[in-house]
Amino acid sequence: MIELSWRAGLDESRAAEVRALAAAAAGVDGTEPLGEHVLMHLADDGVAHLLALDGDAVRGVAQLDPAEGVAELVVHPEHRRAGTGRRIVEEVLSRAGGSVAVWAHGQHPGAVALAARLGFAPVRELWQMRRSLLEPIPEPKLPAGVRLRAFVPGQDDDEFLRVNNAAFDWHPEQGGWDRSQLRLRETEAWFDPAGFLLAVDESDRLLGFHWTKVHTGPHPMGEVYVLGVDPSAQGMRLGAALTLAGLHHLRERGQSDVLLYVEADNSPAVRLYGSLGFTRWQADVSYRR
Q1: CATH number of the domain within which 251 lies
Q2: Is residue 195 part of a domain?
Q3: Angle at which helices 238-252 and 267-275 pack, to 10 degrees?
Q4: Overall number of domains in the chain
Q5: Strand, helix or coil at 30?
Q6: Which of 55, 87, 119 is the last residue of a domain?
Q7: Which is deepest, 73, 74, 182, 269, by most CB within 10 Å?
Q8: Sequence-distant (≥ 6) Cβ neighbours of residue 217 within 8 angstroms
Q9: Per-residue pLDDT tens for 153-212?
Q10: CA 18 to CA 7: how far, in whole Å?
Q11: Whole-angstrom Cα distance, residue 259 to residue 273?
Q12: Closest listed residue to residue 40, CA positions, set 153, 157, 187
């Protein structure tokens, strides 16, 4: 009998169970069921975790950010089609006490059907785009007076945050960062300042950046993790140059493929990445009720 239990921050043992459950789902579904933000906040008391327990074993989990009204969930592949997903969503709705958005990564058919049955409507679509790094990559062309260098932790924090927050002032997750969001990612095993490329002018003022990431595991892959350009530097074609520089870096790191995420309705960014050889791979959809 599956019992639902709310918890705040999870201890390392429970967090490890959740990560293993997510890995099992990814192995079956072909896509990660939980976003990076969820996995980085498993120990956070500021979010709520709903565990679907069979005895002491975790068969499903949801994370609810009450401040943002956003949730993500996953049920173990061997314990689906028993109503657990629906129970989790209904309990999340009750806990939220109002409107809540739930992400369906990869538009899994079961998640799409459940959203429809419970009256959720799609409100946001995030594309994953990919390209091969084995195909030719043009050389980046930087404007006169602009050079690339690596990010230096502790030295470049404020300039990065200034440009990031200006470039993404419209973005619900990437905008409004402070040092805590940067520090959290610097503690991740994948963080490599050599792959955090900065475009600076002659006075070393930051104009844009390309933060790359390398996914390890059974299917290693590079990622255009975050790419941003200072609004005051728009028109200098830094977006294309920074993207290409990061692709070269990832190929030099031994990666053969690269992915990125982009808002489906961000037409300028979609056009840019399409012109650089990226094609749509799959979509994550946020449903709200």
Answers
A1: 3.40.630.30
A2: yes
A3: 50
A4: 2
A5: coil
A6: 119
A7: 74
A8: none
A9: 999 999 999 999 999 999 999 999 999 999 999 999 999 999 999 999 999 999 999 999
A10: 13
A11: 11
A12: 187
